[in-house]
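Researcher: Re-running this chain for the archive, since the previous output was lost when a drive failed. Same request as before.
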Amino acid sequence: MKLLRPVFLAILLVSAFYVVTTRLGGPGAPSWVTRPAHIELTQAAGPASYDPEEQNNIAVYKKALPSVVNITATAVTFDFFYGAVPQQGMGSGFVIDSEGHILTNFHVVEAARQVEVTTSDKKKYKAQIVGTDPVHDLAVIQIPNKSVPQAEIGDSKSLVVGQKVYAIGNPFGLSGTMTRGIISSIRSLKGERGFIDEAIQTDAAINPGNSGGPLLNARGQVIGINTMILTGGVEQSAGIGFAIPINTAKAVLDDLVHLGRVRRPEMGIRTIPIGPELADQLGLSADSGLLIVQVISGSAAEHAGLRAGTERRYLGNIPIMIGGDLIVAVDGQAIEDQQDLSHVMQNHRSGDTVTVTVFRGKKRMEVKVVLGEARGVA
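Model: Regenerated structure tokens:
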């Protein structure tokens, strides 16, 4: 019996502790602690009301969401033993017509063996890649459902810094997410394969998975295609995101859908940029422009009579040919470097005729050039 007394004492102490902590509000609970059976809450007087800004946010979301899709692209990589390993990536896109065509980024579907689209009503479809434009990071895919609502396409020509914008997409796999911000800047952007003129910089939160989704104005119209973020080494938004202007996409959509590629124009020349110092050293007639160092055989430039250099000189250790035509303008737009020329060329298609202003020695002249189709040069 003596052996059981410590056991009974321990049980008694535990029971007492339980009663004190559960019924009396814990050890040392003050006298003002109460535990009513029913909590009386202060209820709102009526249904929630929204201010004009909130109403616009809601309207934009409701208008744009049905056309926004999630894209899952499956590519095949190989492990250490050369075994095929499926690898999935996620992005966004939006429906652009009644045929089920969807605009997205090229890098979302690059090297994909299989593409699956999930619409806002959670229905899934196998998609086909229709056309790609790696230079501008654009792609068009298509699903068999022709009844998915299409986005309203806006105009990116007259955008201004400070304008309110919205991004809708699939960040980190969280479908149907909308963020809001402003246009922070409009600037040329160097992508992996070329320049994007008048890219839209925004502080609207854009994260992995937003790629290919729409950037919208306050009327719910698509003004850009979200494409990349500056992360500082961390794969999340740092308040600096970029979108391809929708007008850039509109200019190539017909080619993407009908041909599967973009008929990008070219002159068929290789050039070097000229600044005042170099122009003075070479004795050129203009302080800036593009000096033609090579004209590709059979190209549009050769047919038009543009001339390349014939005299070898050195820029440091780099040999160049001088004596060729110095391009200073195309269609009246000043040309100082390759980016200027690229900007002009993006407004044209192969077969267009442009007026190229050059200095040939001391003589200023204009040359008509019928643009060819790009083969990897300007």
